[in-house]
Design brief:
With 158 residues, the chain is α+β, with helices and mostly antiparallel strands. The chain contains 3 helices and 7 strands, in the order αββββαβββα.
């Protein structure tokens, strides 16, 4: 669960454009605004598992994870962390703040290229993030119903 930033969110009239580790960001996304020089970074659209609110979040490789961050995303092995602190649509505190966010789409993918001495966008890696069918069924069984926010089921029969 991330810290509560309502003390200044309440004072700034516009909504954050994106978030990084639960911190609201108001400037357009830049790969240079994340940690110091990871080789891969991205901007992902995620959804709260409880209320369905969507957030654009900056992502970077997880420490000690094997392989490319983009390979981890493709194999459904990437941890998107908890969504930012937020209220449910009815204004109450959202239980989803304590749950891992559900990935929806990789909006921007960037890789550091030594020759260019800069991040270079990789649009071929961007697009919907598909959750394997076996994970969807396991998740629905765990929550006991199909009344949660919709997620895309992709399998051999779809």
């Amino acid at each position: 669960m991330h810290p509560d930033y309502s003390d200044f969110l309440d004072r700034i009239p516009e909504a954050p454009q994106w978030w990084f580790n639960g911190v609201p960001r108001y400037n357009p996304f830049s790969p240079l605004d994340l940690s110091v020089r990871p080789r891969e970074v991205g901007l992902a659209l995620v959804r709260c598992q409880d209320c369905g609110t969507e957030f654009s979040i900056g992502i970077e490789p997880t420490l000690f994870a094997e392989g490319s961050m983009f390979d981890q995303i493709a194999l459904d092995h990437f941890n998107y962390d908890d969504p930012p602190r937020h209220a449910s649509p009815d204004g109450s505190r959202c239980a989803g703040e304590t749950m891992g966010a559900t990935p929806i789409c990789l909006l921007e993918a960037w890789q550091w290229e030594s020759e260019a001495m800069d991040f270079v966008r990789q649009p071929q890696l961007e697009g919907p993030i598909v959750i394997p069918e076996y994970r969807v069924h396991r998740w629905l069984a765990a929550v006991g119903s199909a009344s949660r926010p919709s997620i895309e089921v992709v399998g051999p029969d779809n």
